[in-house]
Amino acid sequence: MRTVDGKGNIIVAEPGLKVLIAGGASDAHTWNLVYLELLLQEAGHRTVNIGPCVSGDLLAAECRRHKPDLVAVGTVNGHGHRDGLEMIAALRADPALAGLPAVIGGKLDVAGVVDADEVARLIAAGYRAVFADGDTAAFLELLAALAGGRVPERAPERAR
Amino acid sequence: MSVRWRRADELCADQPRADQGSAAQPHAARRPRADQLAAERPAPAPPSAPSFGAFVAAASAAGHLVVQPRMGFSDPAVMRLGLQRTKYAAARAVGTITLDSYTRLGEHAAARRALAAGDRLNGYPIVDHRLQDTRAMLDGIVDATFPVQVRHGSARPERIIRAVAAAGLDATEGGPVSYCLPYGRTPLSESIDCWARSCELLADLVPPPRLPHVETFGGCLLGQLCPPGLLVALSLLEGLFFTQHGIASVSLSYAQQTDPVQDEHAIRALRRLAAEFLPPEVDLHVVVYTYMGVFPASDRGARRLLEESARLAVRAGAQRLIVKTAAESRRIPTIEENVRALEWAGATAAAEAGPVPAPARPVDGDAGRDDPDDAHAVYDEARAFVEAVLDLDADVGRALLAAFGRGYLDVPYCLHPDNAGRSRSTLDGGGRLRWSAVGAMPVRPARIPGPGRPEMSSDQLLKALRAVADKFDH
Fold first, then answer.
1. Checking phi first, is residue B365 left (phi over 0); if not, alpha (psi -120 to 50) or beta?
2. How many angstroms separate the CA of residue B418 from the nearest CA in chain A?
């Protein structure tokens, strides 16, 4: 990505967003995280995939270390809603990470059902968006918007 | 040896761990748990109980493939019923007690809370049930005609091993690599030390004439998309690790993959390597797992995949098969569904079996008959892995750790922090698993013709993960 700043300097940056991918603390599944990694790379983003069973504290430490542009939490087989709340709380508790955008998606509870109250709680806790399992188009749309500097003010309501 | 013992002991000690949360302590004093009683009260051995390995050897000599379910229930009465139904299934069956995920993760406080609340767990919490309840559950079930194995998935299994021995059982499953890399973030070095200690514990706590048995999970790993050469090598290396830590009866696993011919070569390669690398006095057999990846959704597809695994086991000279059921793609199967799968697999195996049963260790010229190019490819690749690892250290545990550190072993698509993550695999046009990238491993990537390869795209990954299910549902 090349941009020109106010003084006419050309700034060359690495392309796309740097996305940190993580699975929830109660979820040992990884194929979903591998899939996300490939999907994001194909869309021109860079990825740091820290794998499954990530606690809030570990997530915050890895974000301080890798300084991503976005955190993507993927969950399919655990208590995704509960894990997700703990993870976003750990990010928001750290002033250095408080503004870091984060999204969550997958199967958010054991039954694989996402209800509107859960989505609202996750958004209220600080997630930029909550994606239903398989809604990769909406996810990529949001990433493209973030990468272009056009950050949507409100999260897309996709998860009904 | 004493140095390794101390190190492992410290790591596995029954202290609450940072990752278990603070709720782990208070319960222990109230009632003795199964693992705490192990040392004081040696379990009464069932009369003339043969070892797990001896049972399989006898069945095999009589021309039977031993079949086994994946089965675990938190309620002792249901667990007992499941074992009973397995025992009296119309097949040469052994029993399984699969443990729950709290026990796998060492979250015993959570397991006890769930038991106290009457919640159903996803397996049998052998550490947190009272020992007398577990013994009563097994009473009259485990005997000379029906050995039972405990399957758990833990990278730090010391407490489980104590509970297994206290209950009068002597067979389990796992491995320092295969129960670590797929299941979370336990450091590999810690898993290796805990598994060394646990094997030695089992050998100590199970008195003769019973013979403790450990099966490798290394022939499965993540379940899908690992080329057979690496599965075979890890299964062999974990078996060798067990023998270095006092286990004199082992089984080597191999999980059915995408292609029956490639799988047959892999199992033959595993048997040949076992003959070459395991001490000859070690009791040995080979166990096949019915496909462990995304399972066909239709009953017919699931049954055909099970049948194919049973025929594979017989054709390639394996002695035991762990089955999957028709319900596999939807939910945890019932006892009845498991019994049907055992009987179906047993009948399929009997129809496939020739007059002469295969020995666990192959005789000359048994390393693959058809397709000479591929027959030796799996063996050569597996042997390259095994030699590269064993060249690093005479102690298999240290050699495995060094090999992962250098990327000589590198499980494709495995995100564990101690896995190099530079290897990639793919399915070739014929449906066989190939390396598309090998990182620092001592093998070559496949030359795969055609456009769009060798890099796996996200779309291809989904297709590859579903390839077996789609083929059998079709």
1. left
2. 11
